[in-house]
Amino acid sequence: MTEDLIAQAKAILRRNDRGGYTVPTHGLYPFQWNWDSCLSALGFSHFDEERAWTEIDTLFANQWPDGMVPHIVFHEEDDGYFPGPEVWRTGRPVPTSGITQPPVAGFAVRRLVERARNPALAETRARALLPKIHAWHAWFHRCRDPQGSGLVAIIHPWESGRDNSIDWDDVFERVPTEGVEPFNRRDIQHANPSHRPTQAQYERYIWLVQHFRRLGWDNSKLHDASPFQVVDPGFNAILIRSCTDLADLAERFGLAEMAEQSRQLASNGIAAMDTLWSDAAGQYLCQDRTTGALIQSPSIAGLLAGFADIPAPRAKAIAKRLAALGEQVDYLVPSHDPSVAAFDSLRYWRGPVWLIVNYMIADGLFRSGESVIAQRIIADSLRLIERSGFAEYYDPHTAEPCGGDQFTWTAAIVIELLS
Ligand code: 9WN
Q1: Partner of 139 at 20 to 30 A CA spacing, among 12, 191, 242, 251?
Q2: CB 24 within 8 Å of CB 36
């Protein structure tokens, strides 16, 4: 069974391979996405190390001069996805979007180095990538934390990777829709519309893109100019973990200054994360940076926070919260608390289970010694695959496969878990 699943997963990676990068799935997403690529590299690393490094190299070859790594790289023309490069108009030599995504690269590179069967290859490739990843982390702190709070904000829901989370509903009311140019969504021609964001959400996504475009994609302006500024604990945990991993790698390769700076960013972040903790919710919450208030919305972001080295009592509380959620669903981890009225078991980030998030949550739990619940998450993840194949996401009650199929990062995580 295990060998069979690994073989199927490898075939998906090969099928979605476009040379130097993979597409998340055929049809729905025909370009390179940022965090998809870094997590997919983990899958490749078990059977083709060279190809794993290339996946991350190709992404970083499209880093912006200011340090940002864009969320999509449009390597080829394809009108199967909206919004394409003609909407973003960022003026990059290879067209890219103008926003970013969760910075998992530092974490992924460390994994690749640690497990390298070819250490010389790993050292060469890691040494070339480290300064680029460090520049991206510095960009985050400079452009997305201008007040120096220790935590960065996202300025568009697409940056979080959790596009239509219930977390954004209230803040999104602040984003207008006047002046949005007419558009033709392509996602609902590839996937079931009831599994996707709504039209009203898309209008706001596009309003933000047009707003940032008018500001010339100048990252010294975008943060303050955005009506959507949210501090997401999951996103910040990924950044903190990547800073820690980068610091360890920098030490290993004798890059003392980079190590020290990265260590400092991580420790500032860990200290500041506590401002997002809610005793009442028993987890971390998002913060609306415009008002300073915590967003009372118990989502997976506050559980993914354990991907960073948070204090042990916090990790224990998250484990408890996950155990309680485990009584409400057949498959952990639902992307939102099912007892909330807005929960929707089929609609994208408003309830379904995502394997990549499961993987990161479980990884954090193992690190903090919460292995019982971590093992349940892994077991549930593999049951989903056996039952419903390599989908984009799954109904946490029924295991119904949702969104795109033959999904690259889902396959990559299966290889990672079973190898
Ligand atoms: C917008 C590619 C991406 C993931 C995101 C996921 C989804 C895009 C979309 O697909 O977002 O970036 O058009 O729906 O939400 O996490 O990286 O798999």
Answers
A1: 251
A2: yes
Say whether the ipTM exceeds 0.95.
Answer: yes
Question: Quick one: which of 167, 160, 165 has its CA closest to 347?
Answer: 165
For the chain, give the longest Cα–Cα distance.
55
Q: Which CATH class for the 2-418 domain?
A: mainly alpha
For residue 32, which phi and psi values (nearest 5 degrees)?
Answer: -95, 125
Does ligand 1 lie within 6 Å of residue 33's CB atom?
A: yes
Closest residue by CA, ligand 1 atom 8: 158
- Report the nearest atom of ligand 1 relative to the CA of 81: 13
Active site residue 392: yes
228 alpha carbon – ligand 1 mean position (Å): 18
Give every CB contact of residue 116 below 8 A, 6+ residues apart in sequence.
Answer: 49, 122
DSSP structural state of residue 1 = -
Tell me whether strands 230-231 and 287-288 are parallel, antiparallel or unpaired. Answer: antiparallel
- Per the DSSP assignment, residues forming a β-bridge with 283 are 278
Q: What is the pLDDT of residues 152-187, one digit of tens each?
A: 999 999 999 999 999 999 999 999 999 999 999 999
Residue 133, CA distances (Å) to 63, 197, 200, 254, 272 in order: 9, 31, 35, 16, 22
Q: Is 70 in the pocket of ligand 1 (CB under 6 A)?
A: no
* CA 235 to ligand 1 center in whole angstroms: 15
Where in 285-358 does DSSP place strands (E)? 287-288
Separation of alpha carbons 249 and 124, rounded Å: 12
CA of 206 to the centre of ligand 1 (A): 15
Question: Is 84 touching ligand 1 by the criterion CB < 6 Å?
Answer: no
To the query of whether residue 344 is one of the catalytic residues in this protein, the response is no
User: What is the number of residues in the chain?
Assistant: 419
Q: Which residue has the tokens 């990547």?
A: 242
Atom of ligand 1 nearest to the CA of 161: 16
How far is 127 from 121, CA to CA, in rounded Å? Answer: 10
pLDDT exceeds cutoff 90 at 1: no
Enumerate the domain spans of the chain: 2-418
pTM value? 0.98
DSSP helix, strand, coil percent of the chain (3-state; round to 5)? 55, 5, 40
